[in-house]
Amino acid sequence: MRVNDTAERKIYILDTNVLIHDPNALVHFDEHDVVLPIVVLEEMDHVKKGMDELARNVREASRQLDELSASCEDMDKGCPLPGGGRLFFELNHRSLEVLPEPLATGSGDNRIIAVAMALQQEQKSRHVILVSKDINMRIKARALGLTTEDYRSDRVVSDLSVLPSGKLRLEEATWQAMGAEMQVLDHDHGNHFVVTWPEEMELPLINSFVVLPGEREIAMRCTAQDEGRRVHLQDVVSYRQERNAVWGIQARNLEQNMAMNLLMDAELDLVAMVGLAGSGKTLMALAAGLHQTLDMGLYEKILVTRATVPMGQDIGFLPGTEREKLEPWMGAITDNLSILLGDEASNIADILGQHRIEIAALSFARGRTFTKTWLIVDEAQNMTPHQMKTIVTRMGEDSKIIILGNNAQIDTPYLTAYTNGLSRAVSAFAGWEHAGHIALKAGERSRLATKAVDVL
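User: That's the sequence. What structure does it adopt?
Assistant: Structure tokens below.
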């Protein structure tokens, strides 16, 4: 291997998990050189079989490596990459002799670290960086004097503060200034104001909410924007009143009322609700779905899935239907159905069929088209952006997808609040006229659960 000895070009050594996590990672290193230790290919070979997401990613990465190596005239000089850099395959000719004795074993991580250390010693004028999603490996490498980085090109947001909350509060002076040129239009329920938005303030997103100043906490929904920063604000339905309860469920706070307005709007194809445990996401999604499916007939069925069962994971060969195997994963759904159905919920299996509710693994989304379906995706913070794209692109006509999640409870390895499918969906659909998003901050499960969120 003859790495181009140009000081400006960095040398990135990739860990196996980078390609498993993002099979397109090789295109994100611009004009720099990328080194793949041969042990990476060996580890990929162990993962490539199967139908789960990891195996698919490995096969896609292997296809790209095959194309790059097949078109390469001289492997020793590196294979040209789309960004202008070159890809090298390193056989680790110095073996493990560069490692201290406690690490001089044949584990894959240690062999990758050995490659990085050998290159650092040979290419003293170059900046050598080990890229890995494995936190422990990065710590171990730093202890040996290596520069390490997390793989960041998969970040869907650079700062969580830029994720929309779905609402903003106006100061009294700002609202008074808007009132000077306010236009009042007819509206089915309540007021419809058209106001000029101040230049120094960022325009609200379509289907976001504006909370007016005052003790009553009046929320209005932004429904349109005209030229000249003219913003349309409309009153919302109050689902906090018993007469507007949906399947016996009333909104308990302002944010829940905003969420119910989004859920009950048939013009919206996608609604995302991000919130802490106990904020009512699943209960409201089920109540609104049951009402619009059974009472209004807008949808033919409710389909519930969650990311705790990874996309494509085998659900086993033991006896039992898909629903029976997945029910243990769906405790949050069945618990909330018990609240909605009361004494009727003695037999969940019968209840699901009677109320046209299906439970499915995410792997069954591939190749399907969901028409006239109210689809609830629970625990979406554990989905990758690719999984989110797979499920959203399956939505057919007259269907609605409800995406629920809590970025504080991510269980999937290598996913963070910056890189998961939930953040991707919220940021990608923000401001689209047929999508809405709301962040729920208040817990309503119990006073104990609310306190636990704060203190534990």
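Confidence is low (pLDDT under 50) at residues 309-315.
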